[in-house]
Amino acid sequence: MIRICNDKDEEILLRFLKRDSMLHTYIIADIERYRFDKPYQTIYMMENENFCEGVFLEYYNNLIFSRVRGSIEPEEISKYILPEITNIMGELEVVKKVANYLGLSDSMKANNLYAQKKFVKHFSGNLPGIRIAGMRDVDVIYDFLMSFPEFREIYAKKEMIENRIEKGEGIHVLLEKDGKLVAHGNSAVSTDETCFLGGICVVPGERGKGYAMAVVQMICNEIHKQNRIPCVFAPEEQEYTIFRRMGFEKYGKWGTIQMKGDNR
To answer: How confident is the model at residue 25 (pLDDT cuts 50, 70, 90)?
Structure first.
């Protein structure tokens, strides 16, 4: 059975999710920060005889799935993929089953979950032009991220960037050259234990110069100061080996589907 949760369910939800706190950082953080009464968030429990077997939540235009204990029913879950949903993400095996049911296997992308449990300094991060962004940078950040097709759906809501900076929910690190933004990264969702990196990107003409590593290093420095573990989702491709070089280790797998156009 799938049902909508309220604050009375918080203890059982968090007990289930914290069995794998790194993989479930996004869901744990959203529950703890936005609770059960926000118009842009709805939390669902997959329940069997009063036991929690899985969790998923709708946050703005995202649908995020936990690991599921036991079997899942993709047909039942598909009822919650509303027209406003543009991103489906979560533990790889769950997302894979949803993608298969919807006929979207070719649209699904798989990423590894990497975590830097111990601080490893590989780059000083003191390049000229690197800094932490402020509210005045929101429009520039948004326009920069929209220039990367892979980020257009994830960062579709400009207010998500505004909230992160204004409310101290995370930081955006910018690297500028000749007055123009050339590299970006941000800390994203966090719990007491973990904090994710996101939006790591460098304009094509400036790649291979260590800019991404400098941005990642500055974000990780800030996360470790908070006694949290930096985590990131990234494919197993040559361009993402910087994470392994910086002491990140693989801890799990994550799937994503971008719902757009003919995918509906």
So the answer is: very high
Number of domains within the chain: 2
Q: What is the pLDDT of residues 96-136, one digit of tens each?
A: 999 999 999 999 999 999 999 987 776 555 688 999 999 99
Mind giving me the DSSP string for the chain?
Answer: -EEE--GGGHHHHHHHHGGGTTTTHHHHHHHHHHTT--TTEEEEEEEETTEEEEEEEEETTEEEE---SS---HHHHGGG--TT--EEEEEHHHHHHHHHHHT-GGGEEEEEEEE--S---------TTEEE--GGGHHHHHHHHHTSGGGTTTT--HHHHHHHHHTTS--EEEEEETTEEEEEEEEEEE-SSEEEEEEEEE-GGGTTSSHHHHHHHHHHHHHHHTT-EEEEEE-SSGGGTHHHHTT-EEEEEEEEEE--GGG-
Residues 138 and 233 in one domain: yes
148 and 242 belong to one structural domain: yes
On whether residue 118 sits in a domain, the answer given is no
- pLDDT tens string 204-246: 999 999 999 999 999 999 999 999 999 999 887 766 678 888 9
Q: The domain containing residue 180 runs over which residues?
A: 130-247
CATH number, residue 81: 3.40.630
